[in-house]
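Section 3.1: Structural characterization of target chains.
Under the original work plan, the team committed to producing a structural model for every single-chain target entering the pipeline before any wet-lab resources were allocated. The record below documents one such target. The sequence was received from the expression subgroup and is listed exactly as submitted; it comprises 184 residues.
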Amino acid sequence: MHANNPLEKKFWGRVSITSAMSELYFSKDSIVQNMIHEFKYRGNKKAGHFFGNMLGRSLLNSNRFEVDLIIPLPLFIRKEKMRGFNQAEILCDGIAEIINKPVISKNVIRKIFTESQTRKHRAERWKNVEGIFYINDPKSLEGKHILLVDDVIITGATIEACGREILNVTGTKLSVATLAIAAS
């Protein structure tokens, strides 16, 4: 993925991102929406792993993502237990297989339950995610270039909130990869 792509532009002036990319565009009633729902809401982890591999190949081929470790955007523990998995973690496992970097899934914690962002307006999304993330072991992230991964990005509010916490750790750099970005 090239520099100054739509995902990178989402973060301009908001949070310091080294590189960012999305593999697909997500729009209502599209095949992409159906594929992601199959993975996320119907528990098709094999599809998620496939998507992670696909994303990993794109990251590798771009030569723009020289990261040290991969972190899935965390779900609140109760939501993860209800769903049975964190979809971002499944994507990370697929990415890691391709780019050969470790996945760290329990260091960044979502400490507050938030309602789904899907039906919220832009301002409501920002307010909904303020202060909801916590770094359990900041020392283990010091000086690292971190790839933060999520499934779908709409406004970027959740990634930004999590990314700010990560960037508060000394010497960290942040890149972002998502399976899909909402089409404008």
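DSSP finds seven helices and six strands in the chain.
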